[in-house]
C-alpha cells in the first residue's frame, strides 16, 4: 500500500501557483523564407489535424475504435502583409518575392517563429512542401485612405512543431536549426 501512496503522491496535480500563466502573444511572430525574414502581419489557418474513421468492434458496445484515415483534404495557410513598392524592397527580398508567385513551390521549408513578451523565442514551426496557391490584393478604394494589403494562400504538406528540437540544439550551442 505504501508504494501505491507514493505513486498517487507523485502524480498529484501541481498547485495553480506553480503552473505557467502567461499565454504567448499572437503578435510576436516572424516568417522566414529561405532564411530571410519576410515581415508578414497576419497568419491564418495555422493548424494540424488528423482525419479519423470510427470502427465498431463486434461484441463491444462501450466504445468504438478511432482509426486514422489517409489525408483527403488540402491544408492551406494564409499570410498577409502590407504591400510595398519594388523600390522599397532589398535585392534579396525582390528575388524571393519572384519565387513567391502563384504556382511556385518553395524550394525549402518556410519557418514560423513565435516569441514571448520578453522577446525570447518560444515556438518554432516548419511548413513543409508549400506551394503558393493564390495571391490577393485588398480593394483599391480612393475613398478609404487605407493601406494596400496583399495575401498569399499556400497549400502545404505538413506543419511541424520543431520547438523541442530547436531548444535542445540551442542548449548545446548548435545553431542553424
TrEMBL record:
Domain of life of the organism encoding this protein: Bacteria
Signal peptide positions on this chain: none
InterPro entries assigned to the protein according to its UniProt record, in alphabetical order: CHP02241, Phage_T4_Gp19
A single GO molecular function term of this UniProt record: structural molecule activity
Protein name per the record: Phage tail protein
Species this chain originates from: Ligaoa zhengdingensis
Lineage, uppermost ranks: Bacteria, Bacillati, Bacillota, Clostridia, Eubacteriales
Amino acid at each position: 500500500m505504501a508504494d501505491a501512496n507514493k505513486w498517487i503522491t507523485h502524480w498529484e496535480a501541481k498547485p495553480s501557483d506553480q503552473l505557467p500563466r502567461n499565454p504567448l502573444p499572437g503578435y510576436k511572430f516572424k516568417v522566414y523564407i529561405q532564411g530571410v525574414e519576410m515581415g508578414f502581419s497576419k497568419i491564418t489557418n495555422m493548424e494540424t489535424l488528423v482525419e479519423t474513421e470510427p470502427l465498431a468492434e463486434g461484441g463491444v458496445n462501450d466504445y468504438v475504435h478511432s482509426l486514422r484515415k489517409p489525408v483527403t483534404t488540402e491544408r492551406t495557410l494564409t499570410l498577409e502583409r502590407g504591400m510595398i513598392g519594388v523600390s522599397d524592397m532589398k535585392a534579396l527580398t525582390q528575388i524571393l518575392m519572384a519565387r513567391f508567385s502563384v504556382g511556385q513551390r518553395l524550394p525549402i521549408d518556410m519557418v514560423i517563429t513565435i516569441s514571448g513578451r520578453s522577446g525570447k523565442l518560444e515556438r518554432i514551426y516548419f511548413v513543409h512542401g508549400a506551394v503558393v496557391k493564390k495571391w490577393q490584393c485588398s480593394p483599391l478604394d480612393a475613398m478609404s485612405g487605407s493601406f494596400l494589403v496583399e495575401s498569399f494562400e499556400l497549400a502545404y504538406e505538413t506543419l511541424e512543431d520543431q520547438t523541442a528540437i530547436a531548444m535542445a540544439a540551442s542548449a548545446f550551442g548548435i545553431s542553424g536549426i
